[in-house]
Design goal:
about 260 residues; mainly alpha; about 80% helix; about 0% strand; elongated; transmembrane helix; transport; antibiotic resistance; transmembrane
Length: about 260
């Protein structure tokens, strides 16, 4: 077999391993999935009318559902990949990564198995949260098929970027608890983005913090694709963020995987 064929075969084996782990131990994924769902229901049914009046001068709960769902979908990705950091850290501490290093398998397959499995889980989580959003009233009637495909591609690209970052966090953490704590910014960053309120509704000193981070341009791009709002430069900025984070996470993870154990 060629080197490429071996890499694909071994990566597929590692992917099956990680998917089996996710199926046998679903509690972590479900717990992380509950966070965006609970926030969606909380902000829509408790704060929806008041928040809608503040951001658009009216429109009621239905208007705020349309505004908040793109941000919640991005938060779902951030929540899901925290489980990846925990899973990778667990493998590191249980010694299975060290065992894989000694086996005659493609070295990159261990990382790629985690990454592909996590991206698939993130996309499935987004679909589930999107179904909840549709059940409580979210609609995207103006989006074309091409815009839906672009939105799906953006979500997949964001999932890929933050999964690589989560893998690096997991490999660099001394234990699963530390990995979970280290990955918490992936949940907190959407909270300080434009997910819940527009940037111009924030205090002036806080606006740069919310604006110059990866989630805000991705949320604004997704919002524009699904709802027809102005995208501006956010599309290119979000893609640049995703590509940069993917490259950073990949080389960071690979360097830690190839590092001799202490």
């Amino acid at each position: 077999m060629s080197s490429f064929s071996l890499a694909v075969r071994d990566s597929s084996t590692m992917l099956r391993r990680n998917l089996l782990h996710a199926r046998r131990y679903p509690s972590l994924t479900l717990n992380l999935l509950l966070t965006p769902v609970m926030l969606l229901l909380l902000f829509v049914y408790i704060f929806g009318d008041a928040m809608s009046a503040g951001i658009s001068g009216g429109g009621g709960r239905a208007a705020y559902i349309a505004y908040i769902v793109p941000g919640i979908l991005m938060m779902t990705i951030g929540s899901t990949v925290v489980g990846t950091a925990v899973s990778v850290s667990t493998d590191m501490n249980e010694g299975i990564i060290a065992r894989f290093r000694t086996m005659a398998i493609h070295r990159g397959s261990v990382l790629f198995g985690h990454v592909v499995g996590s991206v698939l889980q993130a996309i499935m989580s987004v679909v589930l949260v999107g179904a909840v959003a549709a059940a409580i009233g979210f609609r995207s009637t103006d989006a074309t098929v091409l815009e839906w495909l672009a939105a799906f591609g953006l979500l997949a690209l964001v999932a890929l970027a933050f999964t690589w970052i989560a893998v690096g966090m997991g490999m660099g953490s001394p234990n699963a608890e530390a990995a979970s704590n280290n990955a918490m910014p992936l949940i907190l960053l959407p909270l300080i983005s434009s997910a819940f309120v527009p940037l111009d509704a924030m205090p002036g000193w806080f606006q740069p913090i919310a604006e110059y981070q990866p989630f805000t341009p991705a949320i604004e791009t997704l919002r524009g694709l699904l709802l027809g709002t102005e995208i501006g430069n956010n599309g290119w900025i979000s893609v640049a963020w995703c590509l940069g984070l993917t490259v950073l996470g990949y080389f960071w993870s690979r360097a830690q995987f190839n590092r001799d154990p202490k």
